[in-house]
Every structure is written in structure tokens, then in C-alpha cells.
Amino acid sequence: MSQQQIYPDVKLFVDGLWCDGVSGYAEPIFNPATGAQIGSVAHASIDDLDRAVNASRDGFEVWRRTSAFDRYKLMRGAAEKLRERVSAIAEIMTLEQGKPLREASAEILLGADIIDWFAEEARRSYGRIIPARSGAVQQAVVREPVGPVAAFTPWNFPINQAVRKISAAMAAGCSVILKGPEETPASCAALVQAYVDAGLPRGVLNLVFGVPSEISEYLITHPVIRKISFTGSTPVGKRLAALAGGHMKRVTMELGGHAPAIVFEDADVREAVRLLAAAKFRNAGQVCVSPTRFVVHEQIYEEFVERFIAAAEAVIVGNGLDETTQMGPLANLRRVEAIESLVSDAVQQRACLRTGGKRSGNEGFFFEPTVLTEVPLSARIMNEEPFGPVVPIARFSTFEDAVAEANRLPYGLAAYAYTKSAATSGAFGAAVESGMVSVNHHGLALPETPFGGIKDSGFGFEGGTEAMDAYLNTKFITEHHV
Ligand code: NAD
């Protein structure tokens, strides 16, 4: 079968039906490994959004009254459908996003685990009784779903970013309008189809695509929508949070990061290089928790740099459909241009380009794994989220210097450290300003653990029990028995 035959033309899903938008416009979808068009995605206009809003209002009335046990059963069914379809969906994801097939499969299987986790949490959404000051009074705290949710998800993890929001919201009893990623819509649609095939009632989950700013402005300000959840860049997140604030809507904001990776002098250098290279080049660096500022103790700096350059040069870059590929293309031309511009700015500011630094191949959006050293702090790459396969490596001499560099930027999403010392690990964990800290491994983003940032990296968590709180209101009921 050709790529065009495998890849579907993606529709909107509104009020239980797959449909074109009323305008009839469909945006082309391109394979980032070849640049060729492989399909299209329907755009929603205001009429379509109105239907989605009405459906989410009606769907919410049904879903909030569906017992937690029945929500759990349906969600577990959706997780099983995803697992059954992993190979077919992985191929679609690789075609539209570029990541290697094994990364796509892992993302889908983790998505199924995330649904399972939240399905189970749905059954554990407890209230509490607070002892009263009088025997005649009963004080109860109950948790209620916040209402219809508008969720906005990006193209780097088409399933993972969406499944976290959908599953937590649905577990809590909320309905959802998901604005999926226009550039990678088909795997997101496959996720919605898994829910549909598991018996999803009409209106509980709706999927739209279109012009992001038009959709977000319409949905965020619409009175039916009670909660906003966004994953994407910090500048867009700030705009959407401000809009939501003007309408007193609750928000979850999963924004950018610029994760420090501190390698202390007592670290196992070989192991640090192996794990950091795997994390750095995963999804071609287009990961919000990707390690992006390597800061290495001066005693082991030269050895670390030499070993890391060798690891970068050993990465097999190619079409994600090839079994041997370890790193695929960047997801779109914007990212290639952004990375080219970050590298040339660093080099102009006298950074040393140690390997990579340019596009590769004669088609698609490939960029070489790239290592820079001696990069001044004024270089843009030391301040802006790179979101690509490029890493600056700097050196430090004291613990205080390392922490100062880690905390220098307004971001606070993920931070990594490598050390054999429990004391250093503990001190780093306490000192670093970050929503998540991972020492001697990269252990983030599991369904059962909190995932989220502080400072400019956002607000709220998308994993663990905290994720359910984001979609629940607390209601206090006190009753005097008469
Ligand atoms: P972008 O900032 O234009 O878009 C980022 C995401 O936000 C996309 O999914 C886009 O559809 C969405 N978006 C943009 N404007 C919007 C609006 N007004 N309303 C609703 N959604 C909107 O840029 P981009 O080129 O797609 O990505 C560039 C940067 O975004 C990256 O460098 C990275 O910093 C960040 N990003 C972060 C994540 C993440 O996982 N946190 C994912 C994708 C992109």
C-alpha cells in the first residue's frame, strides 16, 4: 500500500459523528521524512465549534451521571483497543510526525497505560467528612467534575499529549473538546476512535482542528467551557492563560522548558553519556523535558565531551519507517529553520561547533545530531528552548555554580543530575527550581507520577493523583440535622 492509502483523510468528530467542517476546507498533511503530501485534515469553523460546544454540554450531563464504575469500564475498553491497534497507529504516527516506529509504538502503549491509570483513579475520587463542632451538624466535602473542558495539544507527541488530558478529564466526569495538532492529526483521531469503539456516549469527547488562535479564542471565552488545558510553547500559553483568567476559567498549562543536566565529578561518565544521548536525541529533541543545557564538572569535562560527540555521531538518522533508524526528521520545516538559526547565532558568538550543525539528506526535514561547546550565555540557545537535536555543553567548578546555571532561566520544567553521592543528589534536588528532578536516570512522565512545571514552564500537573484534581471542583456541604 502507498503512504497515501495507509494515511487517512482526517475529519472532525462532533456529537458522535466524523464529519467535514461546514466550510469544506481541508489542510494538507506532509510526511516530514519526504516532504510529500500524505493526506489532509478538515478545518472547523465557528458553526462546527458551536455544534461541538452544544454536544459537550449535553455530553457532560450524561457523563457526570455515569457511575465511576461504568466510566472505568469504558476507559479500560479504550485502552485495550489502542493496544490491539498499536502497529497500525504507529505507522500512521511515524508517517505524520517522523519519529521512529519503535518510539511511536512506545508512545501508544504508554497512552494505553495512562488511560488505565485514570480509569482506576475514577473509582478513587473520594470526598471526606470533617468532624463538626456540634453533634447535630454533618460537614461533607464532595468532588464534582468541573464541566466541559477545552484541551489543546501539540504535534510532538500526538497521542501522549492528548491522552493525558482526555483521560484525566473523562475520569473526573468531564466532557471534552480536544483541539488536536493540525500537523499530526491522524494518530490523535485514532485515539478518539478507540474511545468511540469502546462505547463512548455522544458528545462526551469531540475532536476539532482548524486555525488554533480562532478555536482557542472561541472556546476559552465560551460560557459552556469551564476548564482549559494547553500544552505548547510558553508565549502561547501565557496568551491563553490571560484569556482564561479574564473569564475566570481554570487552567492547566504544560509549557516549554530548558532542562539543565548537571554531571558531577563523581558521576559514572559512560553511563551519563549513554542515558543523556538517548534522552537528547529521542524524538529528535522535540520533547519538552529533553535535557538541553549540559553542565559538566571541569574534572570530567573533556572525557564527557569526547564520549558525547562519539555518541552523537553514532546515532543512525533516517526515515522512521526503517527499522534501523534511531532518530527521524524534525516534524516540520519551522523546526529546521529554528535550529539552523540557533546554531548559526551560537557560532557567530564564538561557540565551538564540535559535530553536526546542518541539515542532512536531500529530502525531508532532517538535521544532524549537533554538539556545541564554549557557548556564551548570551547565545540564544542558552536562553531559548531549542526543541531539536542540538546540545550546548558547558563546564562548572563548584556545586553553587552548577545550581546557579540550572536556576538561571525563567523555565522550571525538568532538571537532571548525575552523581554517585546521595548528599549531592539530595542537595541538588532541594536547590533546583523545577517541577521535576531526575537523578542518574530519566524517570519522568509515568502515568502514576506528577508531570508539570513551575515558573514559565506552566501551572498544574498531568500525571499522578494531582492530574485528577485539575478537573474536579471541591464542594463543601454542611447540614444541621433537624
Ligand atoms: P507555536 O508556539 O506556534 O505552537 C505550539 C503549539 O501551540 C502548537 O500545537 C500550536 O497548534 C498551538 N498554538 C499556537 N497558537 C495557538 C493559539 N493561539 N491557540 C491555541 N493553540 C495554539 O510553535 P510551533 O512551531 O508549533 O512550536 C514551537 C515551539 O513550541 C517549540 O519550540 C516548543 O518550545 C514549543 N512546543 C512545546 C511543546 C511541549 O510539549 N510543551 C510541544 C510543541 C511545541
Automatic annotation (TrEMBL):
GO BP annotation list: gamma-aminobutyric acid catabolic process
Name of the protein in its database record: Succinate-semialdehyde dehydrogenase [NADP(+)]
EC number: 1.2.1.79
The Aldehyde dehydrogenase domain, residue ranges: 27-477
SUPFAM superfamilies per UniProt: ALDH-like
EC main group: oxidoreductase
Domain of life the protein comes from: Bacteria
Phylogenetic classification of the source organism: Bacteria, Pseudomonadati, Pseudomonadota, Alphaproteobacteria, Hyphomicrobiales
PANTHER family linked to this entry: SUCCINATE-SEMIALDEHYDE DEHYDROGENASE, MITOCHONDRIAL
Family designation: Belongs to the aldehyde dehydrogenase family.
tRNA-binding recorded as keyword: no
Entry keywords, A to Z: Oxidoreductase
Listed GO MF terms: succinate-semialdehyde dehydrogenase (NAD+) activity; succinate-semialdehyde dehydrogenase (NADP+) activity
